[in-house]
Amino acid sequence: MNRMMKPTSMLLAAAGLGIASLTGCASTASTKLPPVYLQGTVLDNHQIGVSKRTEFLEIAISPVASEITLKDRQQIADFVTLYRKRGHGPLIMSLPESSANPQLAVSAVATAREIAWQNGVEYDEIAGSSHGEGSTVSEPLLMAFQVYDAVAPDCKPLSEYDYSDVSSNNESPELGCAVRTNLAAMIADPADLLGQRKLDAADGPRRAVILEKFRNGEATASTRGRDESGAVSQAVGN
């Protein structure tokens, strides 16, 4: 006599066959998953580089003048401002040893130091040097400092990628490259990417004031005067 299979047994058998078939598919399917896919993020594929260079300024020493010109003073001030924004290491001022006007050369260095101090550069941030020994021509006053530049990743043209290839669900190789390129252009000081800048100490008293205002339900933003308002002027009627 044939025994009929119970419904529960039939369902279990069918489920077993389904699992077996899925296992077989999983064991033969190709995922084409690169090892780097599981390491970091897509942005790690397009790192921003950092390069170092030297900024120079030359101030000509006139053989007949008694002081440097107003234009030279402005050039020095602009150079010092750039040093304050992006400079690293000492601000070097090099005295020319070969000059048609040695007195002016020494005076130019003193003037440059004074302009630097007036623009927020401490004297211990300035390094003295000399150049042009044995030169047959009158050398200029030289100023220099080190600066860092961000190097954007090399993004390939989109035409080089085959977007019709859907053999895997991995991200495209160029994903994140444009983001890194834009970020490289916006970084104020690329030296920060090297981790060289130290954080300033926290302002404990100011933090306590803000916390107390927050507890009392008061506004924590600084109070603005009328001159600091961002409202559009109504002086001119429509």
UniProtKB/TrEMBL annotation:
<keyword id="KW-0732">Signal</keyword>
<feature type="signal peptide">
    <location>
        <begin position="1"/>
        <end position="26"/>
    </location>
</feature>
<dbReference type="InterPro" id="IPR013361">
    <property type="entry name" value="Pilus_CpaD"/>
</dbReference>
<dbReference type="InterPro" id="IPR019027">
    <property type="entry name" value="Pilus_biogenesis_CpaD-related"/>
</dbReference>
<dbReference type="Pfam" id="PF09476">
    <property type="entry name" value="Pilus_CpaD"/>
</dbReference>
<protein>
    <submittedName>
        <fullName>Pilus assembly protein CpaD</fullName>
    </submittedName>
</protein>
<feature type="region of interest" description="Disordered">
    <location>
        <begin position="219"/>
        <end position="238"/>
    </location>
</feature>
